[in-house]
Task: inverse folding
């Protein structure tokens, strides 16, 4: 079973080293390239204010988050959920940095999520596939014709769902091309095979005296070397 999880977080700011915290975490599950309804999603109480710049991105306020669980309250559920899976993250260093910061603060049984799960960075993947172009999630949705009309603000769960569609489009292109190549309405009609009959006897070309002499010399060499020769026994 190939189990992959699309993961995204929202935070109070940009740098965990400055005391910023996660305020939303979400995962969307995919098994053998089929999305399931087995999601993981929590809003989190950061015990601090949300920076204005971050609020402008996701619209989450401290008042809204006040009654939400702390990360340490959902940590074991999260670790059990992601165990054995591969994480697919857009701009993975950002989310991994915050996850590891939260794990450290919560004194988790692991200190590095990348040592616990495999991690794929779709931003790095997109930069290789589309060099020199904008590769944020909105730009990729537009380029790959993924409908993101519901994305007025960033949200971890919605962004995971969009990332799943983007990832499938980026990694399924060859399969789609294969299907287009061989799906056709052209019908091939059976054709009659014409047979030709050759009349008369075919000519038989016999060896001349020089060729017969050379053949006899060759058989003599084989016999002198005790090599079994069917032609000699037949003659």
Result:
């Amino acid at each position: 079973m190939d189990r992959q999880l699309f993961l995204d977080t929202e935070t109070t700011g940009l740098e965990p080293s400055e005391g910023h915290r996660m305020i939303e975490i979400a995962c969307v599950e995919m098994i053998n390239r089929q999305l399931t309804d087995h999601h993981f999603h929590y809003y989190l109480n950061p015990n601090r204010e949300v920076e204005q710049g971050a609020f402008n991105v996701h619209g989450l306020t401290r008042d809204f988050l006040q009654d939400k669980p702390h990360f340490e309250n959902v940590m074991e559920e999260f670790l059990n959920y992601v165990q054995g899976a591969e994480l697919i993250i857009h701009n993975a260093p950002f989310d991994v940095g915050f996850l590891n910061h939260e794990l450290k603060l919560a004194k988790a049984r692991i200190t590095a999520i990348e040592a616990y799960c495999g991690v794929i960075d779709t931003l790095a993947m997109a930069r290789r596939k589309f060099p020199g172009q904008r590769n944020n999630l909105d730009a990729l949705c537009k380029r790959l014709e993924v409908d993101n009309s519901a994305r007025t603000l960033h949200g971890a769960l919605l962004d995971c769902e969009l990332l799943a569609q983007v990832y499938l489009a980026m990694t399924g292109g060859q399969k789609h091309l294969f299907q287009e190549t061989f799906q056709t309405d052209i019908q091939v009609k059976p054709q009659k095979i014409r047979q030709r009959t050759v009349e008369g006897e075919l000519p038989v070309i016999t060896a001349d005296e020089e060729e017969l002499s050379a053949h006899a010399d060759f058989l003599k060499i084989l016999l002198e070397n005790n090599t079994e020769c069917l032609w000699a026994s037949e003659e």
About this structure: The first strand starts at residue 3 and ends at 11. Confidence is low (pLDDT under 50) at residues 173-193. Residues 13 and 52 are 9 Å apart (CA to CA).
